[in-house]
Amino acid sequence: MSMQQYEFWFVVGSQFLYGPEVLDTVAQRAAQMTQELNASGHLPCKLVYKVTAKTNQEIADVVREANYDKRCAGIVTWCHTFSPSKMWINGFAALQKPYCHFATQYNREIPNEEIDMDFMNLNQAAHGDREHGFIASRLRMPRKVIAGYWQDEEVQERLGRWMRTAVGVAFSRELKVMRFGDNMREVAVTEGDKVEVQTKLGWQVNTWPVGKLVETMNAVTGEEIDALMETYRQEYDFATDDLETVRYQAREEIAMKKMMDTEGCKAFSNTFQDLYGMRQLPGLASQHLMAQGYGYGGEGDWKVSAMTSIMKAMSEGQTGGTAFMEDYTYHLEKGNEYSLGAHMLEVCPSVAADRPRIEVHPLGIGDREDPARLVFEGHEGDAIVVSLIDMGGRLRLICQDIHCVKPIMDMPNLPVARVMWQAMPNLTTGVECWITAGGAHHTVLSYDVTAEQMRDWARIMDIEFVHITKDTTVESLEHDLFLSDLAWKLK
Fold first, then answer.
1. How many other CB atoms are found less than 10 A from the CB of residue 191?
2. How open is the CA angle 232-238-241, to the nearest 5 degrees?
3. 390: which strand partners?
4. What is the pLDDT of residue 283?
5. With 90 as the cut, is the pLDDT of residue 200 above it?
6. What confidence score (pLDDT) does residue 166 get?
């Protein structure tokens, strides 16, 4: 499902104590707020007002309905008046969708002349939201609390970002990953417990033989390749006359897409150590598939492949870009330190500063023909890099804040896509923190998805979250990791 096909249900809390006139007013205001929030332009998905819930049964019924409606990606609750929270226990205990507590109120200001006991009885969000918040805390529920006035742009944008996170949860729980062959031999961090991952995150991770891919490639027609070559010409500049090499990449892309679409997969991985029967490592092919929303992981790294597709789903419609990435080398000039991110071939063109170029160059690894690839530089801007690792008994999601810059040198003899950035809090401390936390060499880089969204995603998925920021020190991180290790062992 695309972002716009999902919806979120607005459930308002009240009770019969206040009488029918108040309840009618609450329902009218909830409908008005829903309409205006949808019209704000800040919500990526439709908000649907469902009910002003007044009983245990009403709450349990709407939760049950939400759990089984694929369009519903989560519920947003608000207590206009006082809603006794014991009414919410059965519903919350059964809730399987992400949950946001919207702590707001209908009126912005206290009306000095109009405020009386009738006004106080009707406008009890400050009262009701605290009662409502207690029961979620008591039940240890993962939730997002957003407080502020519902007409403020910042509040609406925060709600919109949480919606994107919840869509990432829905996407994750139905994600299938296609592995072409196994992991690169002897690499540790790309390994992981696929049973644990499916239990926690919903991913179905399975392997298809490279021979099956080669069979599918051999069945691709010239007409199919011609059509994709025309797409390449529309989207990229050709900086090569070796069209046969580019056509071979098109053949690989078409075959991989056919296999993934047939199996319902939205992410894939491969490795240069298993290209049996193939003439080239997929470069341009993998890059163009990522530009269409598929996740990719090099060297058989299925975890980063899945995270790339999830974060692309979360950022649908945004223009900053999200890409498979790898820290390749450092610039350690004192006071002018940078990371250079790249990969052999496979960085998504969604992060490009300018129109990418198709080039053909030797690869120097994999013992195959020179492959075609997209060459470009990443654009400037704040971003994050994210790594999911298996700690044995639990999953850890590591997120680091970075600032991407225009590369400080041309690097004319490096024909790959690349992004240069300043790591937070600085390069050397950031590297020490990343290594201390166990972060992988493969990451997902995103200009669109925020650290707050990834924290929310990890909370919903019940996995550990580590955030390296401008204020992080090695000592504070070691302390946090020690406490986190103790806490997760007790879970």
1. 14
2. 120
3. 395
4. 97
5. yes
6. 98
Percent of the chain with pLDDT over 90: 90
Cβ 93 vs Cβ 140: under 8 Å: no
Cβ pair 396, 456 in contact under 8 A: no
Give the bridge partners for 360, in sequence order. 372
3-state secondary structure of 35: helix
103-to-8, 22, 79, 167, 259 alpha-carbon distances in Å? 16, 20, 8, 21, 46
Return the structure tokens found at 236. Answer: 């990229």
- H helix or E strand, kind and range, residue 464: strand 464-468
- Residue 122, number of CB atoms within 10 A of its CB: 18
Counting every residue written for the chain, the total comes to: 491
Tokens of 111: 């009306």
pLDDT digits (tens, 9 = 90+) for 111-124: 998 998 888 888 88
| H-helix or E-strand spanning residue 128 | helix 125-138
Kindly tell me the number of DSSP H helices and DSSP E strands found in the chain. 15, 19
Q: Judge whether 262 and 228 are in contact, CB under 8 Å.
A: no
The token duo for 95 is 């809730």
Q: What are phi and psi of 149, to 5 degrees?
A: -80, 130
Give CA 217 to chain center in angstroms: 31
**Of residues 127, 247, 189, the one with CA closest to residue 443:** 189
Both tokens assigned to 58: 């009403």
For 82-94, write each residue's pLDDT tens digit: 889 999 999 999 9
Question: What's the distance, Cα to Cα, between the start and end of the chain in Å?
Answer: 34
Name the 3-class secondary structure at 154. Answer: helix
The residue written with tokens 């939400």 in the block is: 66
Please give the mean pLDDT across all residues of the chain: 96
The pLDDT tens digits of the residues spanning 364-393 come to 887 899 999 999 999 999 999 999 999 998
Which of the residue ranges 154-163, 183-192, 290-299 would you say has the lowest mean pLDDT?
A: 183-192
Q: Tokens standing for 326?
A: 């790898």
Q: Are 458 and 465 in contact (CB under 8 A)?
A: yes
Query: What 3-state DSSP class applies to 317?
Result: coil
List, in sequence order, every residue forming a beta bridge with 386; answer none if it has no partner: 399, 444
* CA proximity to 393, closest of 304, 474, 487, 267: 487
Query: What pLDDT, on a 0 to 100 scale, did the predictor assign at position 253?
Result: 98
C-alpha dihedral, 343 to 345 to 348 to 352, nearest 10°: 90
Least confident piece of the model among 38-42, 258-262, 364-368, 402-406:
364-368
Residue 412, preceding peptide bond in cis (omega within 30° of 0): no
Q: Supply the DSSP symbol for 108.
A: S
The structure tokens listed for 126 are: 């400050």
